[in-house]
Specification:
- The chain is built from 10 helices and 16 strands.
- By secondary structure, the protein is an alpha/beta fold.
- The protein has 2 domains: about 110 residues, Elongation Factor Tu (Ef-tu), domain 3 (Beta Barrel), CATH 2.40.30.10; about 160 residues, Rossmann fold.
- A 7-stranded antiparallel β-sheet has the order 6-1-2-5-4-3-7.
- A hairpin with a 4-residue loop joins β4 and β5.
């Protein structure tokens, strides 16, 4: 069981969780993720690690309510627990001195991109961070974005905060002004990442995208996270999640991500009808699991003491 140390709302339907996971916290690198399962027989979902505190033994993740699993997860509060958290998984971001690096992020992609932005700054790059959101209520971590960059721009689709427009608008403005970009990382909805790739590809700018394909086991065995790069198949969980944007077949990625949309909608509808009941069942299951674990630990400790006593007696 993985205890939630802190839970708080970060934006509209977006929650941030700090979780006790000391082993993961010690090994996490920017760009890596975890796969978690909230309850027994539950869905396994990948979530990028926003930050880690090895000294405190915690990691921080950000969750946007989309389907049943994220809805259940976003009902949890400080003191609740998650059944499984596996990681860190995936290849870390490639961090080196490029020169001028632009981070283009949308929605919860902002949280995913923050560790890489910080690392690029530490590597003496000039970092430009472009954050996009549908509305003011969905702009997240603005202070952290500004702290992790030399220049920060906030854009909203409806113009309710920051500049009015899409993130590609600002990216194109920067390039049109004659600024030289040596590296671009795009993280967010697939259509946004594809749009960024279309802007940078003709200019030959090295551009990476963090792909949010469907994942199950996180080891490359199930094939669920297969992505097409040119004529090659890769697995986002072990070969990624970051890939060269100029090679990604975004049409195939979008088709694969939509494969189970009907079932996801049905599952979410059923959850909404029994939300309180499912949450109560989860908390009861956690209490039972913790009780069983405590009993087993006490039994093992007793056996150890008895064995130690027998050794001393001999």
């Amino acid at each position: 069981m993985f205890r939630i140390v802190e839970a708080r709302t970060a934006g509209l339907n977006i929650r941030q969780y700090t979780i006790a996971a000391p082993r993961i916290a010690r090994k996490q690198r920017p760009g890596q993720f975890v796969i978690l399962r909230v309850k027994e027989n539950g869905e396994r979902i990948p979530l990028t690690i926003k930050s880690a505190d090895p000294a405190a033994g915690t990691i921080t993740i950000v969750v946007q309510t989309v389907g049943k699993t994220t809805s259940l997860l976003n009902c949890l509060e400080t003191g609740d627990a998650i059944l499984d958290v596996v990681g860190p998984l995936g290849r870390p971001s490639e961090i080196k001195k490029y020169g001028t690096a632009a981070i283009v992020a949308g929605s919860v992609g902002t949280a995913m991109a923050l560790p890489t932005a910080r690392a690029l700054m530490d590597a003496d790059n000039h970092v430009i961070f472009i954050e996009g959101a549908r509305s003011r209520e969905m702009v997240i971590f603005e202070d952290e974005v500004r702290a992790a960059s030399h220049e920060a721009y906030i854009l909203t689709d409806d113009g309710s905060y920051g500049e009015h427009g899409l993130v590609t608008k600002k990216l194109e403005e920067i390039l049109t002004a004659g600024r030289k970009l040596d590296f671009v990382l795009a993280v967010g909805p697939v259509p946004m990442m594809r749009a960024v790739a279309r802007v940078t590809a003709p200019l030959g700018i090295k551009t990476m995208v963090s792909l949010n394909s469907i994942m199950v086991d996180g080891t490359g065995m199930c094939g669920g996270c297969r992505v097409l790069l040119g004529n090659q198949s890769k697995f986002a969980c072990v070969d990624g999640p970051e890939f060269d944007a100029s090679l990604v077949n975004f049409d195939v990625l979008m088709q694969r991500n939509a494969m189970y949309r009907g079932q996801e909608c049905q599952s979410l509808k059923a959850f909404d009808q029994h939300r309180a009941e499912e949450l109560a069942q989860h908390r009861a299951a956690v209490a039972t699991k913790e009780k069983e674990t405590a009993q087993l630990r006490a039994k093992l400790e007793k056996q150890g003491l008895e064995a130690q006593g027998e050794t001393h007696h001999v």
